[in-house]
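Sequence decides. Consider this:

===
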Amino acid sequence: MNVLWIFAHPEPRSLGGSLRDEGLRTLRAQGADVRESDLYAMKWKPVVDADDFGRAASTDRLIVGSTSKDAFETGELGEDISAEHEKLTWADTVIIQFPLWWYGMPAILKGWFDRVFVKGFAYGVQRPDGRTARYGEGALAGKRAMVVLTAGAPEATIGPRGVNGEIGDLLFPLQHGTLWYAGMSVLPPLTICGADRVSPEQYETAAESLRERLRTLSTQDPIPFRRQNGGDYDDELILRDDLAPGRTGIGVHMSSSRTV
């Protein structure tokens, strides 16, 4: 197994850093080949600008989508972006690890997706029939992804009736709107709550949960998101009336009611 571990935490001595180290040891002990993108250690530039696209951006107006595609196809993307593309192409599994900050990713990780998931590489890919290959199809199809998340909130508050909301809803933009959109199969996330108050015993429980998830990376069932081009959506990409009748919201885009 080729695993790319993307880590977005500014403190390597944090709970997240310790779990990252534990995860890497576990994977290597299993015989996996592992590469890392430690974004803070890399001093990753998180903002998209014309410098990312070389001569492809030499026009008066920067249109990010089309310009990024031109730069990708002509080999003029920034070297740091191309290096991440090489890692993603190599990997068959991607672990995305970060702390939950203000209901989302740290800015540096959002910037990694903004700069790396360019048109032509992660989206904007056409099927032979002319339909856009996305939501289960695309250039990254066949790869697996899993989120490893640390959150300061107590576990009871992150659930269907918890004040912070259900974790599948909080991660929907990343898991469905980014990873699944680009074609990757998305495994249920591993969430470690109460991150600022973890005792040694609680840490060992969290570490064992991570080790177990990593041992079964290739056999876990992914979240059953619906495929855009699998027949569940009409020509306007609206879910068919006979599927999840009377229901709305995020849950209708999964083919079962399984809680993830």
In short: The domain at 2-223 is CATH 3.40.50.360 (Rossmann fold). The two ends are 24 Å apart (CA to CA). The CA atoms of residues 6 and 24 lie 11 Å apart.
